[in-house]
Amino acid sequence: MGCVGSTQKGEENSKKLRKPKPWKHTQPITSAELKQMRDEFWDTAPHYGGQKEIWDALRAAAEADLSLAQAIVDSAGIIVSSTDMTLCYDERGAKYELPKYVLSEPTNLIRDS
């Protein structure tokens, strides 16, 4: 019976992921500018604490569709505090904050033509 209890405990820690709410950047930005912002975040994020493996899993989840993102988060043991993934924790209690711009596109994104 211990195995059943541990499975249920794991499910308590994982919330069902959702797409972030629509958001607007302070000024219209291009896809290239958004990509640069994302690259800069992911390059520097591990230097602010937490485990590199968790940051790598969060990046993979942020760049995946919702069902794959859910599988990545669950298998990495990431505790999702907010369902849009803006606030997560690892099993050791380290905090991982993700800005909306790494999770979705702003409503005022300038499409490349």
Automatic annotation (TrEMBL):
Matching InterPro entries: DC-UbP/UBTD2_N (IPR032752), DC-UbP/UBTD2_N_sf (IPR038169), UBTD1/2 (IPR039869)
Membrane spanning stretches: none
Protein name stated in the entry: DC-UbP/UBTD2 N-terminal domain-containing protein
Organism: Ananas comosus var. bracteatus (red pineapple)
Limits of the DC-UbP/UBTD2 N-terminal domain: 14-112
Highest taxon above the source species: Eukaryota
Pfam families to which the protein is assigned, alphabetical: UBD
Region described as Disordered: 1-30
